[in-house]
Every structure is written in structure tokens, then in C-alpha cells.
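User: Hi! Is it possible to get a structure for several chains at once, not just one? Here's what I have:
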Amino acid sequence: MESKTLFDKIWDAHVVKKVEDGPDVLYIDKHLIHEVTSPVAFLGLEKRGLKVFRPENTIATPDHNVPTIEQHLSIKDELSRTQVETLTSNCEKHGIRLYGLNHPWHGIVHVIGPELGITQPGMTMVCGDSHTSTHGAFGTVAFGIGTSEVEMVLASQCIMQPKPKKMKISVDGELKKGVTAKDIALYIISQISTSGGTGHFIEFAGSAITSLSMEGRMTLCNMSIECGARGGLIAPDETTFDYVKGREYAPKGEEWDKALAYWETLKTDDDAVFDTEFSFDAADIEPMITYGTNPGMGIGVTQYIPTGSGLEGSDKLTFENSLQYMGFKPGDKIGGHPIDYVFVGSCTNGRIEDLRAFADFIKGKKKAGNVTAWIVPGSKQVEKAAREEGLVEILEAAGFELRQPGCSACLAMNDDKIPEGKYAVATSNRNFEGRQGPGARTLLASPLTAAACAITGVITDPRKFLG
Amino acid sequence: MAYDKFITLRSQAVPLPIENVDTDQIIPARFLKAVERKGFGDNLFRDWRYDKNGQEKAGFPLNDKKYSGKILVGGKNFGSGSSREHAAWAIYDYGFRVVVSSFFADIFKNNALNNGLLPVVVTPMFLQDIFNEIEKDPQSEFEVNLEEQKFTIIATGKSIDFEINTYKKHCLANGLDDIDYLVAIKEDIEEFEKAR
Ligand code: SF4
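Assistant: Yes, the chains can be modeled jointly so their relative placement is included. Here is the combined structure:
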């Protein structure tokens, strides 16, 4: 039999039909929807007089627009409220499960999927949001789609896609103290650039990857889209199975045994070939921070901003514009630069381990006076765990407060906007111009680095405090 | 039927000789809060077309009466950035049926094809020829022949072949989209579900 990669195995098992000189018809196991990219899809469906084909396989939650305080009140922004209400009525009309505001399972789509055991190895999953790649952590082929494709999945449980190429990225060795999954992600993107993965689906492998927790793996796969890839996945193992077991939607009893037997086969064959391969040494990775306006513009937190010498033409112009937007000078040391905001949250780093890491770090210390901090849990369940574990008291004693779940300042569609010209150390995934509000200056980093910056008020290497 | 059938198109063209036109410029994020696919054409290139007070900015090609037509001609790397499909909607809703460039961002190209908007890739030299022709005579016409996959500058008779896969070509020519196709193969999908 032909040798296959893990990606091939999952993809090929879901091809309903191959269109000659065209895309594959790919069957989708689970479809997540939210309020921003679904309303036009439902309208399209209705215009064609179609019903949702498999309503049980779509799960909905409003996350992009929702406020992160006073969620029990009606949403103030009229357009946001209309989008959220439209999601609710569409779900009611079409028999789709919705975890709405204030539901104990409400949260960011990519946080609640894994949390509820909806995400399982070997599945195909899509959502009208590019960070659907998060679910790849489970050995799942998961990727973001456009609104037409949301309509396709609603209408037929399928989408039409050409099969991407395959890339392997290995990271071997032991991670140094203070270095997290987020740093691996930012490091890889800084090395292969924001277009290094274009046209590919990535498999992450190597000892530094398999030693990550499930949540760390999610952070890494979440960011795979930022190097231009369609998505990224990691072969499922004991860590994966332990995480899924017992969750709400996970298979139970005999079903579990059957599922597990299949999941254990989900590995790349020894002699399978990738179109592109990279390998990195874990020992080379430092706590990372970005200095520019795309996620590929990242450096170790103790390093100097590149000088840009050697760049030419439009690359040079892009680099200069980017630094100008950020208010940084080429060759400057990034450490010690004052900051104004800290945002901990998003589907990249808004899970309980992230809040634990942050709380652990700031325990017994005080928030710097010049810093406004927004700590936003990724879901209601994360919020609940943070309360039960006493993280909220630790945060409050240090001058921080825990907000309510949602995408929040990750894309600033709600009121959580960073003001123009202000510096925000953010644990989210995109530092594009204006992403966190018009004129906002975003520096992407891990929750640990964010914690160090929050208590010192300047860009700080977290290792200084780690003994 | 999802959109108009694409038959051979003969039209003037609107030039936009700017590189790396990203989807945030095509349709700014603040217009993504809509729940209907309506009015996106009005906000196409919003911040380039209008100033803060909603007044048209002079000099932007879409505001220049001498240009019109169903063909938009853009610079290299058209449609980069966020994957928002609203970008393709906005261009289509404004009235364009064809976008010409020497390079398109992947996702934009797909989104365009999914919405009845034909992306035509030409060589950088040919792109320059088109810009030159429009500059010489803004009324100049172009022909897009989908069947023969040919783009022609009528005035000079110069033409170039463009690529499109057989499936997408069939869809465009018949005004069908992927959803029509998927609905039509429902039985295959049900078979697939049973066989798993
Ligand atoms: S947290 Fe950010 S990246 Fe994640 S789903 Fe929300 S907007 Fe998208």
C-alpha cells in the first residue's frame, strides 16, 4: 500500500468525490459557526429554498462581537446585538445547537470545541474563522473557510477544496525555562515568514512538540495559519486521548474503544513523503515578542530590532512603514520599552493553563501603575475553573480583574479596543495595523512574557523572575 | 442560480494601478457587521473613495467619470490579507464581473470564483499594456472570452490566454456555484455517509 502522511489519511478518508480538473468534494464531520460569518450563509440557504442538511453536525456560539463585562445585560452596540440575535434565530429555525451568552458552555468557538469533546482525532472540521486550525492539535484536519463555504456545509455537509500540499515541521530537544508553545509558534513564523507555509497543511512533530500539553499544542496549531498554511496538525497520542476521554461529546463505552482503536492508527507512515520539511532545535528558542505589524516580525525578548539592512524595494518599504507604525527604530533594544496595555486571552492563549501560568507568575506581585490589563477567559468553563482554583483572588490581590469570555481585544469588534498609538502586549495571534483598534500597536507574546510586562510596565524577559 | 451566467464580455475598464491591494482596503472591517449581503458595493474601497465626511475623494479612479465598465484592472498581488469573502462581494456588487492582475492572493481568487467574479491573470507586461491603453483612451474596450480563455485589447488586437480549471469554467459559464453542484450530488453524499 502507498505510504501516507497523517494528513493524507484523514483527508482521503473524507473525499466523497473527485471532480475532474477541479477540487475534491470533502465531507465535513463538525462545523462550528459564530455570529459574524454565518448570517449571509443562512440567507443564501433560504433564498435557494434549502434546509440545513445535517443540523446535528453544526454547533454555534456568539464570540466575536460580545462584550466582556456585564454580559447579562443586552448588548449595547446595535449592529453587534443584531448579529448575535440573528445567530440565535437562525439556530432556532434550523435546529442547530447554540451555546449563547450566559450559557455555562459559552465561549470562543475554538476554545469550546475541544473543551466539550466536539473536537476528536481523525475528523474534518471547519468554521468561518481562520484560526480553526487550533483543532489540528487533536490530529484533526481543521481549517477556516469563507461565508460561501459556510453555506455549502450547511447545505450539504461538504465543501469543495483542492488538496493542499504537505509540510513537516519538526522541533526536537528540550525547551528552555520560560519558553512556551507560543514562543515555538512565534519562532517558527519568524524563521519561515508569514508566507512560508502558503498552499500547505503542516504536521508538527518532534520531541519538543510531543512533550507539549494539549493546550500548548492548541496554541501552536492555532498560529499555523499565521505562516500562510491552510492549517497544522499533530498526531494524536496518549496526551490527546486522556484529554478527550470523559468530555461531554466524547464517545463512551464500546464506542470509545472503537474510536480509540482507530485513533491509534492516525500516524504518518515511516516512508511517507512531504512536499516541504523544516526542522528546528528547541534549545535555540527564547521567549519571543513581535516588534512589527505581522506575526513573522518576531525576535527573542532580549534581542535587538533588526536594522533592515539588506532589504530592498517593496520589502524595505514594508519594513520601514511597519517600524514607523510601531514607533520603533531599527536596531533598538526591545527590552525595557514602556507599554500601556496587556491583553491575556483569545483562542491562542485564553485557556485555563494560560490563566494559571499568568496567575502563578504575578502571585504576590503588583500590576505596574502605567498598565491597563484585560484578562479575558476563552470560555465560561475557563472562567469557572479560574474562580474555583482561586486564580481570581490571586489576580485581584495583584491588581488585575477577570473579565467575561469572548474574542475581545483579539480583533476589537466589541468595546475592548486599544487606543491609538498605545502599546499592547497581547497573547493573541495577529499584530496587523489596527487589529486591536485603529492605530493600536500590538506586541504578540506568551502569557508568561505578558505577565512579566504587566508587573514591570516595560517589555521584560520573564526569565528574570523565574530564578 | 447563484449569479449571472458569464458570457463573452466586452467592456471598458477601470484602472487601479496599485500593488498589494489588500482586502482591508477593498472592504474595511467595520462593514463586516452586516447580517445581509447588501450594500457592499457602496462601501467598496470605502476609505480610498470617500473622506472622513463621506465626500468623494477626487482622483480615485472609481470617482473619475471618465472611467467605467465591468472590468477592474489592479496591480500585482491583488486581494491579499484577511480571507473575508466580503471583498469579492463588494467588487461584484459594485458591478464588476472581471478583475485583471498579474498576481492574485490565493483565497481572494477562490472567493472571487465562488461569487461569479472572474479573476484573469496576465503577464506583468500585458498588464502594463492594458494600463497604457486605458491611459491613452479611457473609452477603450476589452474583450473577455471565457470559452476560449482569451483576453483582448480591442484597439490593438493584442490578446493573451488565461487559465481557469475546467470545473470553475463550467460553473461560471452556467452561472452555477459550488452549492448548486453539491446539492446536485446529494445522493453521492448520502451514499458516502452510509458507507462509513
Ligand atoms: S479569539 Fe481572535 S482569532 Fe480567535 S476566533 Fe476570536 S477573533 Fe478569531
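The first helix of chain A runs from residue 6 to 13. The two ends of chain A are 53 Å apart (CA to CA).

User: Great, thank you!
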